[in-house]
Amino acid sequence: MRLSLRGEYALRALVALAESYDGEVISMQVVARQQEIPKRFLEQIFNDLRAGGFVESKRGIAGGYRLSRPMEEITLAEVVRHVEGTLAPMTDLSQKGSRLNPQAAGAQRAIRAVMRDVRDAMVKILDAVTLADLVRASRQFQSQPANATDYTI
User: Fold this and answer.
1) Residue 93 domain flag
2) Which domain does 84 fall in, by range?
3) pTM summary value
């Protein structure tokens, strides 16, 4: 699975809203500036996130966006599924299929089995990680120097 720029921006926007989670709305301009996301692109992303039930919007001069539910209840899997579509679809590794000789067919089935395991492990991780986990990791990274060791959730 590869996360598109749209998917990354959606998650970054949600992290920005979650970091300020107190029920108050945050303007799109603040999120765009803080997360360095082009405003026009962020507007489309927020519309999509609102349609998916992740954010609520408030119109007017003091308007903006806020999470529609607690950050502990929003998993990365559901956000990525909404923005990107199916999580880690299995692609057909070969169009030859049944025409392969036994050695090639055996290798092909072994590769597919491993790739299914990889997909299943990735989906399990994304189902277990919430927006709250991302906020904690983000705050930890913000307090570290830029060249610090990578962190795994």
Assistant:
1) no
2) 5-88+130-142
3) 0.82
